[in-house]
Amino acid sequence: MAHLIPTYRALLSCATGRTADQRSNKPERLCLTTMDMLSWSPQQDNSQTVSRSTHGPGDALCRGRTAVNAQASPTVGAKMYRTTRSPMMQPLVNSGMGMAPFFKVTVFEQEHFQGKCLEFTSECCNIQECGMDNIRSIRVESGAWVGYEHHDFQGQQFILERGEYPHWDSYSGNISYHVERLMSLRPIYCASHQSSRMMIFERENFMGRNVEICDDYPSLQAMGWMWPEVGSMHVQCGAFVCYQYPGYRGQQYIMECERHSGDYQHWRNWGSHCQTPQIQSIRRIQH
After folding, report:
1. Is 115 left (phi over 0), alpha (psi -120 to 50) or beta?
2. 191 confidence band (pLDDT: 50, 70, 90)
3. 193-220: per-residue pLDDT in tens?
């Protein structure tokens, strides 16, 4: 029986790829998939950034956020930040330093990019659940976003394209209803400036005369639309922002091909803040 022991050990080594000594002295490694992987890398600035995209308690309303204290005191040594793969797949772009989310926005609690700030790569249903009182300035680094006056994407809508918005007036569209509040925001995934097209109709339920929109129109009347109102719309592709008055002023209404299947049969479908079917300027949303 003793002469069989070496043979058994040899066979066991071939099956596992390791010797008995290696099995007893070295812990077994666990191979994680990309979805499970947790990566660490040094952060050299003076603030700690923690990017979370989980759906656990406390994160359901603020997915993909990064908390940043804009006035943190300097700390000796390199900081560490943790990133995890978001459960909701997002478009990716090659940034030259690897693959990064295509949507990124930083919001600030005070005007002119001062005070506490948060970074988002996906929707936020309620900024107060993320530890902020209000959003008073915004820096959009990539993608197109829409902000809302109230939580849960209700109230006035504000289109937010790439650029800086130091105060409320810079994105409000000069509306007469002046309440400086922005409590929720989300990306506009279907925005495509080069391939946006929709039909506008004279009456509700896609009835009456109609015109195809595939460009930017600061005045619908100047292009031949004879009425100050629009009864219904069908977005075939891309996304548009419609304004109550000429020159891209007044109430804003975001129209997307991915919401309501692109069908806006009645002006009440335009948003919870809509009180009138008046539309006098329309433009494509810049991605």
Report:
1. left
2. confident
3. 778 999 999 999 999 999 999 999 999 9
- In terms of Cβ atoms closer than 10 Å to its own Cβ (0-12, 13-18, 19+), residue 25 is exposed
Closest of 188, 192, 186, 190 to residue 64, by C-alpha: 186
CATH of span 197-284: 2.60.20.10
Quote the tokens at residue 218.
């600061």
Please name every residue paired with 51 in a beta bridge, in sequence order, or none if there are none. 66
- Domain 39-187 homologous superfamily, CATH: Crystallins (2.60.20.10)
Sketch the domain layout of the chain as residue ranges: 1-30, 39-187, 197-284
In tens, the pLDDT along 4-24 reads 444 444 444 444 444 444 444
d(CA 41, CA 198): 45
Query: Are 39-187 and 197-284 equal in CATH topology?
Result: yes
